[in-house]
Amino acid sequence: MRLPVIRKPNRFHPDFRRVIIRFLEHNPDQTRSVVQTILSMDDNAVQKALTYTLREFAKRHRNITKIFYRHFQKVQLLNAAKDLNLNELTQAKQLLIGAYFSQEYSIESAAFFNPSMIESPDQTGLEEGSKRVIVSFRATGEGHISSIVFRSGIIDRAGNLTFEKVGRYIEGADLIKRNKYCKKDFISKLDEMDIDKSVLYSVMDRLNDPFIYGELRLAVEQALEENNDPSSHKKNIIEKIVWLADSHYEIVFSKDTHITERVIFPISYTERNGIEDARFVKFTDENGKVTYYATYTAYSGTTILPKLIETEDFYHFLIKPLHGQGAQNKNLALFPRKINGKYAMISRIDGINSYIGYSDNINIWEESKPLHKPKYFWEYIKVGNCGSPIETPYGWLVITHGVGPMRQYSLGAILLDIDDPAKVVATLSEPLLVPNDEEREGYVPNVVYSCGSIIHNENLIIPYGISDIASGFVSIELDNLIRKLKDNPC
């Protein structure tokens, strides 16, 4: 008999009104034609077109002229516009060119799902027994491009959830590409990608250790200039080297944004088809310092790359790829503290079973050992985690997902030894949550899925995605869950 779960009334659905401004790419001929047309316009015509555009769109976005100017700067770098002498244009022409290379994009129009819930850094001004939380979601828009968005809410002492109204605007962050790269780690990741060594070292031998992004780009240009007509093979390898470097970046949001207005939208080439299923965790180090991490999957359209987000305040984010054979595939989840002096992570490197690995470096994961495999009929296809393990007095609680007949997803749970989490102490023999009649219809039917839960006042609160289109929440009494787990020891 399954445990009683309480479905909360809170539901999140796609909202097509939530739009950001993206750079609009044109083909080279069209790019040149548009820019030349604006260059030929007199000042009155330019001002009339710009005034119209601002009247139509300025009320929908914060600092829209800043975005138009940023997009104008991108146009300046395009080959089709490099010889058009755009350096001395009036501000109005610069902004108008930027506007013609901009478009609104509805980030949540298709789906709003796979949430992860963590305790907020801000716990001020609350009633006793309440907790402020941040919930991250995978938002999906046109072209099935996924991004990470946030909501802020409060769990009261009785376990009721209330969420703040979303901010008026939504916007991406400013990009800072000043990451320092460890040469050894960088080469090691390229080795995992089976990069041609001769081409690899034609670039890497030009670099010091560590090196920065600009130095890498210079080394790439020099490697390409070694012969006037580099082969397509060499160009392809060098593209992959730059592709990896582009996957390291830093982003910063303005302090005047509310957390509901911040979106981590795909920036690097590795992510151009989406950022999937961020699993946020509040990590506390040996000295008590708190850092928020999230593992996620970057998808380029052909290749997936496991990556790590790091933040302390949800304004400033550092993003890096995860390296090593233990950081392959999807479904990576960090423990909220070190185990016996090492970082620990659950993974699913073979796409079917759960594994556990340890590391001295949070970005490098080598050996992983089997942890949990499909055991019951509702998980015979594959099992995985639904977020980071949660520390309890009884052991590490891991919410799992299993895939069974008719590709139905169900949530389950396992309990790991507190001192040696490579040991599974107990498992649920029946699902914790399965899609009900209302939840089984959607973009991908019969799916419930979570990326991270929280315990509050002896209740487990699980946010979960509903058939890859919307999100809901359930709560379970922790004592009941632990009792049920202990009834089925391993």
Describe what this molecule looks like in 3D:
This protein is α+β, with helices and mostly antiparallel strands and 490 residues long. It folds into 3 domains: 290 residues, 5 Propeller (Tachylectin-2, Chain A), CATH 2.115.10.20; 88 residues, no CATH class; 67 residues, no CATH class. It contains 9 helices and 29 strands. The strands form 7 sheets. A 6-stranded antiparallel sheet has the order 8-11-16-15-14-13. Helix 3 crosses helix 4, helix 6 crosses helix 7 and helix 7 packs antiparallel against helix 8. The longest helix has 15 residues. It starts with 5 loop residues before the first strand and ends with a helix. The relative contact order is 0.12. The model has no long low-confidence stretch (mean pLDDT 92).
Largest sheet, spatial ordering of strands: 8-11-16-15-14-13
Uncertain parts: none
Under the CATH scheme, the architecture of the largest domain is 5 Propeller
- Strand residues, percent: 25-35%
Biggest sheet record:
6 strands, antiparallel
How much helix is in the residues? Answer: 10-25%
| Distance linking N and C termini | 19 Å
User: Can you tell me the number of structural domains?
Assistant: 3
In CATH, the topology of the largest domain is named Tachylectin-2, Chain A
Mean pLDDT: 92
Query: What's the β-strand tally?
Result: 29
Structural class call reads: alpha+beta
User: Going by CATH, what is the homologous superfamily of the largest domain?
Assistant: Glycosyl hydrolase domain, family 43
- Oligomeric composition of the shown chains: single chain
What form results from the Cα inertia axes?
globular
